[in-house]
Amino acid sequence: xxxxxxxxxxxxxxxxxxxxxxxxxxxxRIDSLQQLVNKSYKPGLGEFMLGVQQxxxxxxxxxxxxxxxxxxxxxxxxxxTLDDIKQYCTDRPEIKSLGIIDxxxxxxxxxxxxxDVEQFKKAFxxxxxxxxxxHKDNQHGFNVIVIPTGLPVxxxxxxxxx
Length: 162
Ligand code: HEC
Hints:
Elements: H1 2-39, H2 45-64, H3 68-88, H4 102-113, H5 117-137
Helix pairs in contact: 2-3, 2-5, 3-4, 4-5
């Protein structure tokens, strides 16, 4: 009986010990993974905005040349970048004003669907004003967005029918 008790206690002792060791190992792995996550690259709001700026310019030429498939692509790219901002820039309180451009984006999408260049230009002008409203509301009024006058790149054909 004594031997059985001793054996039982010994098994319990070793298995508890093993459990504690496993927990410690697991914690060490979690800590090092946490460090990796903290160090991983996350683009900042300014970097995302550079993307938005590029798509904004491309969208203008696609729309005014009535290259509707390209315009549709560019407006979706803006939408995707806004989604990324919402996902990755949660530490920036300014992003609560992002919705300010939604109505203009919707009007642009509608103009693209209807292939209406005048409506497109009107909605694009509204969008550009909304970019600046948000910048002004968030102490970035010095970032002034305008309707582009020159092609954003010269290695792409923005005209339709290619
Ligand atoms: C949430 C409101 C908001 C909206 C809407 C918005 N922006 Fe911004 N934008 C910001 C903020 C805040 C910054 C400063 C980011 C930083 O701290 O780096 C910024 C920065 C920028 C910059 C400067 C980037 C750089 O690093 O030099 C550009 C260009 C820009 N935005 C373009 C646009 C365009 C184009 C639109 C409209 C299609 C737009 N933004 C709409 C808030 C906004």
